[in-house]
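Why show two proteins at once? Because comparison is the fastest way to build intuition. When a single record is shown, students tend to memorize it. When two are placed side by side, the eye starts asking what differs. So, the first record is below.
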Amino acid sequence: MAWMHSASSYLAISQLLFLACLYLVYFPGKRLAHLIALFCLCLTAYILSRQPDLGLPALSAVLSMMAILAPAVLWVIARYLFEDNPNIHKGIWVLIVSYLALRGFGLWVYDGSQSRSSLFFLIFFYVPQLIMLLLACHVVYMACRGRDSDLVELRRQLRMPFAIGMGSIVGLIIGSGFFWLGSPQLDSLYFFVIFLLILFINLGMFQIHKDTPQLIHMAGEQPAPGLVPTVSAKKNGVATDEQRSGTVPISKQDQMLIDRVLKAMQQERLYAESGLTIGDLAVKVSVQEYRLRKLINQSLHYRNFNQFLNQYRIEEAARRLLDPEEQHIPISSIALDVGYASLSSFNKAFKDTYQVTPSVYRSGLAE
């Protein structure tokens, strides 16, 4: 069965290296392309580290550390790809460095005499593996969480295949226990599955080749604020040039749809409905959901439906917080009234917009 082990290894490695080169060549200088290439190298290192005749201890240690890095790299990729706010909390970096340090130290001092039920294994192997599992699970969560509100169609279509494909690959790595569980036969199965998944991704790249550059270029970039023309600011039912700055010309039919959406949002205050989805809005303005997604994304410059809602909600909340006649109304009541389901979500959205909390903004200390 040695030939099967070698064949599955070479097949998987060839697809991984092809994918890495593809992104590095076609998207030079792009952070997401570099991260994808690094992830491919981490998976390649994992496959090489599982070879029975590796021999060199130093090389084995390097490959092991690169393989252990795979879940963290995948998490960062998912963050840059699916989150429009790419900033990563310092605590996440501390968590990643900590689990790498623990696992690295464990591999360095392990001499084979420690029992797998010992405290040594718990601290230096099982705890890092649990952290890696949590990172992998959060990757799937990030990919699935924002699918319904995602207005970038290519990214929306990519979410589920990414969650299933990449989650499965990292799940195989973590499930094998990185060098502790498995056999040549089981490893051959792992490698063949990785080969099939990466082959599927490579074929998909050619299918969506025209749209992929846009997704790679925008990944990890903070989106510009959406442009929401107001009904009162229109001239003869057409948005002004400033409101449409940077967009392609809007057709008369699309402009009529925009008018209906703006009227529903501003005059009927639909944004104040807690839990409003783009499907709900599509029903209320009598338009197909896919067309409404495209309209809000391409004509109003929003990547996410929640950003679109927050623009209205935060604008009204800010006005009411500074209104002397509403100083007696609790901030939580204003938050609920403009459509937020909780005070914490309102505080986060408000601070993302104004860089201060609602209470500081109301007190007049905001600059």
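Second record. Ask yourself what differs from the first in the token line.
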Amino acid sequence: MNAISLSSSPIAPQSQPVASAAELAKRGQIEKTAKDFEASFLSVMIGEMMKEVNQSGAFGGGVGEEKFKSFMADAFAKQMSAAGGIGLADSVTQEMLKLQGLG
């Protein structure tokens, strides 16, 4: 009968320490803040682009249209950010993690 050696196990010990619950919570908050920042940035950019869009006809124009353009820009920006955005949130997250000593 052959003996199996347990000392030559192919499973290596973890090289990184396990993150604490507080550190994981902080990382999650940083990621959320970065996504919110990206959505805010995109909202401003989309709002600027939409300033030049003129609606005419029975359903266009007026004070209502101007007020609701900002809501539409916000909705577009949140959807874009949730779908992966433009990469701004990832960059901001990495920098914020470095500043907190977590990156």
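One difference worth noting in the second protein: Residues 22 and 28 are 10 Å apart (CA to CA).
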